[in-house]
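Collaborator request, handled under Task 6.
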Amino acid sequence: MQAELIAIGTELTLGTTVDTNSAWLARTLATVGVEVQRVTLVADDIGAITEVIAAAWQRSPLVLCTGGLGPTADDLTREAVAQATKRPLEFHQELFDGIEARFRSFGRTMSESNRQQAFVPMGARPVPNARGTAPSFIIDEGARALMVFPGVPSEMKFLVETELLPFLRNERGLKSILLVRSIWLSGTSEAEAGELIADLMQAAYPTVGISAKAAQYEVRISAHGEDPAQVEADIESCAAEVSRRLERFLMDRDGLAAHVLRRLQQHSATLAIYEGLRGAPIYNGLRSAKPDLAQALRGVTIHPLDQAVDREAAESLAIAGANTVRNNWQASYGIAAVPAQIGADGFTDVCIVLVGKDLQRSFTRRVELKSDDALGFITTAALDLIRRSLEA
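Structure tokens returned to the collaborator:
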């Protein structure tokens, strides 16, 4: 079964609140074989919400909405669902009594505005909310279903686990599972990796896709079916083939920084860092990893340039910086990143140099330093240079 998720709330579309509900829902639905095809964020506007729900209701067998079930004027999900499905709202006394009882249990008096929470579209199945004051509801038409849940994560999760999943298993007979496996890469490009596994990406099953972030890549493999053992075998077989073809780019699943630190520890090697950028991308990238940084890192020197230099001078400074910190800190390796002057196109050549005993390797990463991803690209380039040297 395929599903659509609709997250409702202006706080989501403004970016002041991150939509974690949809990510959790997608992972949870996968456990019963439901594949999310589309996720939509929509602001608290009755016309916009109605339009989004009506379109989803026409094309998807399962539509799940979160948010907009509160008692205030901007909680418009009930009205939008009613308009989109052409089902007028009707009052449910038992829901109202339950809301009132919950307020009494808090020692508080219910406001008149809470009365609107006891309305649900005609013919919908009311779902009391034992964790909050916003009831949910399900519209079930056999071939398709629409479910609405509160936006409060704890309430939404409770109702999904106690109402949605039993509904899908018991009334829709869903017995299949969906497994997802991720393989992480660095030292390549999305295009290069994609070319090496193009036939697997074009196959109907298992499903294979690639996503990128700061020059690190995730290959996602998904497989589904009713036989858990067979699904596991299918995904393992595909993952093994992907890993075989991309072997030289593989890194640990918890990230490149953790991968590099583990390799340093395995080689009983240490590292010293020379940072020519104020953001200290190499040090901060390593610091984010789970393994103990102190075991591998001997020292860090952060020395931004006093004035801009050309690429040749930046590379010379990087070589000198890497050697200096290696010698000063008596480390196995020294690595440095030094930026050249900004070009007419707004981009900068960042010279990265790794030195060790009988070793000197360099790499230049061209980045736009003002961009949000610039430091991430530099981190990845530097750490991958270390990784490839250690694994050579």
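The cover message to the collaborator said: "Residues 60 and 344 are 50 Å apart (CA to CA). DSSP finds 13 helices and 17 strands in the chain. Please let us know whether this matches your experimental observations."
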